[in-house]
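Allow me, if you will, to draw on your knowledge of protein folds for a short while. I have a record of one protein: its chain in single-letter code and its fold written as discrete structure tokens. I should value your view on which stretches of the chain appear to form regular backbone elements. Thank you for your consideration; the sequence and its tokens are set out here:
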Amino acid sequence: MTAVVEATALEKRYGETVALSGASLSIPAGEVFGLIGPNGAGKTTLVRALTGTTEPDAGTATVLGESPTAIDRDRLGVLPQDFSPPDRLTARELLAYYAGLYDNPRDPDAVLAAVGLADAGDTWYEDLSGGQQRRVCVGSTLVNDPDVLFLDEPTTGIDPAGRRTVWRLIEELAAGGTTVLLTTHNMAEAERLADRVGLLADGSLIAQGTPDALVAEYGGSSRLEIETAADPDTLVELEYSVERAQRRTHTAADDTVSSGVEDTLVVRDIDPAAIGAVVDALERQGLEYTGLSWTEPDLEDVYLELADRMERERTGGAGESGEKKPDDETTTDLTQTGETA
């Protein structure tokens, strides 16, 4: 599939600071690509390189087959993380101002409705809440009906209802063929919206794939967490009770139970069918617990696992296998079918 957005081995330094270190990605038409990573990983610099506002020191970037500085700007929508529009305009006037920069813009009122602010058109931008202001900013990227949309943390500061409005809007745009690259710290946002996700760390994309494929590869196992105020001896008894309950439900118990941090017992790889038996065993023996939760691995687990691996490698620690990775083994690409590389 032809790439609409492509970066190959991008490098960027600011003095002694390495912002990008061989970052590469390829996004086909109509895909939503989620870019995640810790603060300072290089996400904003990568977006700037792809939109022509930062010149990389090395490597190449193309959008719609052209250099980012040569592309027809009517075809792009860009929302910077630190976007600050004029505030002495109403929401409608602000969108009308940006619409006036293009040849065939969308109606500002239609854009206001799309971002859930149909009733706020006459409100001064400065009088809008922070979340409403951010939604107006999202709307400013849509007035030209772009083919490619770059959104740098688009829902920062937006309340849950407004966030879901923006999510639905992005889903509708992608369904209509718009290609979207968004950066986010919200793992639920990335998991819901992104067809593929890339984790950027230290300026390099260290893993890419569908959310499901990344979770299967790096997310770990399902787990049951039992919070208790029990003393250490009782905690041992609690662990034994959990193991027995798993055996009765024909769930493998070997290496699945581990004492957690402080007062939490973590049971990994537990069959959901065994949870009821675990609860019954705890109650029969009078072992008190203050909380019990069962969770499946998700994209947040992937993020934490890969970030932890990078930190261990940075500090010279061994990986899970007990061996250091070769210097060039830094990127894992998981295909859209969910197969691991």
